[in-house]
Write a structure and sequence with these properties.
Radius of gyration of chain B: 22 Å
Strand order of the largest sheet of chain B: 2-3-1-4-5-6
Number of strands of chain A: 4
Largest sheet of chain B: 6 strands, mixed
Helix content of chain B: 40-55%
CATH architecture of the largest domain in chain B: 3-Layer(aba) Sandwich
Number of domains of chain A: 1
Order of helices and strands of chain B: HEHEEHEHEEHEHEHEHEHHEHHHEEEEHH
Largest sheet of chain A: 2 strands, antiparallel
CATH topology of chain A: ABC transporter involved in vitamin B12 uptake, BtuC
Distance between the termini of chain B: 59 Å
Radius of gyration of chain A: 19 Å
Mean pLDDT of chain A: 90
Structural class of chain A: mainly alpha
Number of helices of chain B: 15
Structural class of chain B: alpha/beta
Oligomer: heterodimer
CATH topology of the largest domain in chain B: Rossmann fold
Shape of chain A: globular
Number of domains of chain B: 2
CATH class of chain A: Mainly Alpha
Low-confidence stretches of chain A: none
Largest interface: A-B, 39 and 41 residues
Chain lengths: 295, 407
């Protein structure tokens, strides 16, 4: 059997695929962060908590209201997005004129509060959420056993990422958004309701996090710390991709998932740190990130 | 000036008097202060956490809030699974707040750090959730009592049972910190002694959320048994992913350290059939059921091994204070080591010279959803493992406190 550095190529292809699956979560989450940062200039530290909320809303819908996975995939992001709209209107909107740091501190505080509330109510060890019947089971590929659900995660997140990118880069609404980022006063003078645009953008970014949460619920433990565990990595992904770059966030998300997957084979102990090593290297060589424009 | 000098001299005399007076109460500060340092918010918070604190309060209430005429105070702190935070807090407790006894929940890194401080300050330290066998082996101290269980008892119970059941070739998925290393090492020893082999092992970062990659490598090893040398959320995530990737079809999954709350979080559909070693279960007999119910009424959860052991350890400690009327570490630990423990947690538990409490362990299997008849009905008792068989023997021990002792 062909090998690469002593690892059979078959096993390696399996690991690449798994990396892509993990990368899907990074991609959706970092996409939401990039959208919010790009348009609002807010470093949304509550993103992990909002991802966790998505998973919990799905769990609550199932256990309190009997609403299954498929409707939850739509309803939960809407719920989480609305909570984001509320947060933006009540608190974040007051910070646009201040330094980035204030937005970071505010959203970080909100994240801690939300995580604490969920922990108090649901405990820390997590709740079970079953894989929907249509997606249980799996396929035996030549190199590995691929659970159907994991395949679905890649497809769903690719579709969502693509749709978001198209909406921002290719539609009129997206053009307004981009214009509002460049010069809000001028866009407002043309009769566009810029504050509303910003609110909806934040709500959308947060809804993306909620969507990732629902996707994650059946495969990861639904627990209050799930967001805190992943958010730091996702921030690193955004920094590597270039703060505010939509395409950069998507490509880097999938790419780093794959890199992490490879490290899990060759040096598992390092899998938790490899992304940060890459971040440091990228910042040294290209401070604006791989896809970022230098200001 | 003279008056000032007199005042100082007087104060010094007072100090001397207080030290020497033989009839004065031997409890310092007229309070007995107990500190619980545990994971209140992280991946082990459900296994101990606020439930553990509640169990300590239950023990204090059993004594009516005072012992030998001294008020009992209780403080609890979150170590956030960081040894430096845990150590700093315990140092503060002992130096500044007058804490008389420290009890520790999960995380062996914290447990080992705190054990050194407690020994330095000559305060009793009762390790409950810190599982590493190093606590009473190469790093034993005269003040450490390892009360609930350790990595040796887990590996001797589960390891021996699984090898006997035909699981000859093992693969380890190990949390990359002191607990994971301890349990892997102790289990390897058991496997070798029983004639099994180890095909390989992977160290994963603590709190890794995705296990699919590690599982795929484990599957590729061709071993019969996949041993999860981790705990809490790591075990839960690993088992969930193993279920999804069908690892159970080619390998037998063994969780080396699992708590009742983990099974609750996984659900029986996923956890069914798992073998595990536990030191206690709420549904063993009428006494355990009664206590479990009492705990449930206060916390809405059935107690884990750690929580009942928190309760029992504080009771045992308070009994020692009551019997001796003292609170100094040497007297209390000597008394605790000389007195067998008999309560809802253990029967005839003996604290050995190395500090390890020896008591029966239970090999359990998780029930299937069909077998489970009522809420929290999760385990079948497979076998009682006598305490002596579940602990490090004197011949194996590297604790000089014990190996150099005459008894």
């Amino acid at each position: 059997m062909a090998t690469l550095f002593g690892v059979p190529l078959q096993a390696l292809s399996g690991q690449l695929l798994l990396g892509l699956i993990n990368g899907s979560f990074y991609a959706i989450l970092s996409l939401g962060l990039a959208v919010i940062f790009g348009l609002l200039n807010i470093i949304n530290f509550a993103h992990g908590a909002q991802y966790m909320m998505g998973a919990f809303v799905a769990w609550m819908l199932l256990n309190y209201a009997g609403v299954g996975y498929w409707p939850a995939l739509l309803i939960a992001p809407v719920f989480v997005g609305l909570s984001g709209v509320l947060l933006e209107r009540v608190l974040i909107a007051r910070l646009y004129k201040l330094d980035h740091l204030y937005g970071l501190l505010l959203t970080f505080g909100v994240a801690l509060i939300v995580q604490g509330l969920f922990r108090n109510h649901f405990g820390a060890s997590g709740l079970p959420y079953a894989i929907p019947a249509e997606l249980s089971g799996g396929h035996r590929l030549p190199f590995m056993f691929l659970p159907t659900y994991r395949g679905w995660v890649v497809v769903a997140s690719l579709a969502v990422c693509l749709a978001t990118w198209l909406a921002i880069e290719k539609t009129k609404l997206g053009a307004y958004l981009r214009a509002a980022t460049e010069n809000p006063a001028l866009v407002q003078a043309f009769g566009v309701n810029v504050p509303l645009l910003l609110t909806l953008t934040y709500g959308f970014g947060v809804a993306l996090a909620g969507f990732a949460g629902v996707l994650a619920a059946p495969v990861l433990s639904v627990n209050p710390n799930m967001g805190a565990d992943i958010i730091i990595v996702v921030f690193a992904v955004v920094v590597i991709g270039g703060m505010g770059s939509i395409l950069g966030a998507i490509v880097t998300g999938f790419g780093l998932g794959v890199v992490e997957g490879l490290v899990k084979v060759f040096y598992p102990e390092g899998s938790a740190t490899v992304i940060f090593v890459i971040m440091a290297l990228v910042l040294l060589v290209k401070p604006a990130g791989l896809f970022g424009r230098t200001a | 000036m003279i008056s000032k000098a007199r005042l100082l001299a007087g104060a010094a005399m007072l100090g001397l008097a207080a030290q020497d007076a033989p009839a004065a109460a031997q409890v310092s500060g007229d309070t007995i202060k107990i500190g619980l340092i545990t994971d209140m918010s992280g991946m082990y918070a459900d296994a101990d956490g606020s439930g553990g604190a509640e169990a300590v309060r239950m023990a204090i209430e059993d004594f009516g809030g005072e012992v030998a005429g001294n008020k009992i105070e209780f403080v609890v702190a979150d170590h956030q699974n960081k040894a430096d935070i845990g150590a700093a807090r315990v140092r503060e407790w002992i130096d500044r707040d007058g804490v008389d006894m420290v009890i520790a929940g999960p995380n062996s890194s914290v447990g080992l750090a705190v054990a050194k401080i407690a020994a330095d300050k000559k305060k009793p330290f009762i390790a409950i959730g810190s599982t590493s066998s190093r606590l009473t082996n190469e790093e034993c101290t005269p003040f450490t009592i390892h009360y609930a269980y350790d990595t040796v008892s887990l590996s001797k119970g589960t390891g021996a049972a699984v090898v006997a059941d035909g699981g000859k070739s093992w693969f380890f998925l190990t949390a990359d910190y002191v607990f994971g290393a301890s349990i892997e090492k102790d289990t390897r020893a058991v496997i070798a002694a029983k004639g099994g082999t180890v095909a390989g092992s992977i160290k994963h970062p603590l709190g890794a959320s995705d296990f699919s990659s590690f599982l795929l490598q484990a599957q590729g090893s061709g071993a019969d048994v996949l041993a999860l040398a981790n705990a809490g959320a790591d075990t839960i995530n690993a088992i969930k992913a193993a279920d999804e990737f069908g690892v159970g079809q080619s390998m037998k999954l063994v969780a080396m350290n699992m708590y009742l709350t983990d099974v609750h979080a996984l659900g029986l559909q996923v956890a069914k059939g798992l073998y595990m070693t536990d030191g206690w279960y709420w549904d063993l007999n009428d006494e355990t059921r009664a206590w479990g119910k009492k705990f449930f009424d206060r916390t809405n959860k059935m107690p884990t091994l750690l929580q009942v052991a928190d309760y029992s350890a504080v009771r045992t400690y308070l009994e020692a204070v009551k019997a001796t009327g003292a609170d100094d570490g040497e007297t209390i630990v000597a008394r605790m080591k000389a007195t067998p423990v008999n309560d809802v947690f253990v029967k005839d538990g003996v604290i050995r010279p190395d500090g390890r409490m020896v008591h029966d362990m239970y090999l359990m299997q998780v029930k299937t959803p069909e077998e489970s008849k009522y809420p929290w009905d999760y385990y079948k008792l497979v076998k009682v493992i006598p305490g002596e068989d579940a602990a490090t023997s004197k011949a194996e021990s590297r604790c000089t406190l014990w190996t150099n002792a005459t008894q």
